Amino acid sequence: QYVGSFAVEDLDLQQQAGRLEEQLRALKDCPRRRPVVLRFSLQGLKVYGADGETLLMAHALRRILYSTWRHADRQFAFVARNPRSPSSTLFCHLFMGPPGEVQTLHLLLCRSFQLCYLLAHPEEQA
């Protein structure tokens, strides 16, 4: 379920991670949620409405800077630059679901990054 998006300061992501975790914690009981379908690919992540056909947002992998999941609060979130926004404008997109599902969503996004990197650098494959 999509909870919403909020602006994130374009700081060093190591510094920002702590602030981001605080914001996610504050939103753990947010009642506003919308059923969505997430689709991962080597190009990026697309979010569709519950019908699986209405595209709500699309983010190329190159625009996604950070991903996290919080088991206790059943949250999955990623930070990205929006396609037509200034490069210094970042947004965190927050989703909620069962604990195993949010971990899987985070791992799918991580795997997309890994596969994209290996395709670009075949010499590094073992």
Automatic annotation (TrEMBL):
Any one Gene Ontology cellular component term annotated for this protein: postsynaptic density
InterPro entries assigned to the protein according to its UniProt record, in alphabetical order: PH-like_dom_sf, PTB/PI_dom
PANTHER family for this protein: SH2 DOMAIN-CONTAINING PROTEIN 5, SHC (SRC HOMOLOGY DOMAIN C-TERMINAL) ADAPTOR HOMOLOG
Organism field: Mesembrinibis cayennensis
Record Pfam families: PID
Domain of life: Eukaryota
UniProt protein name: SH2D5 protein
Domain spans labelled PID: 1-117
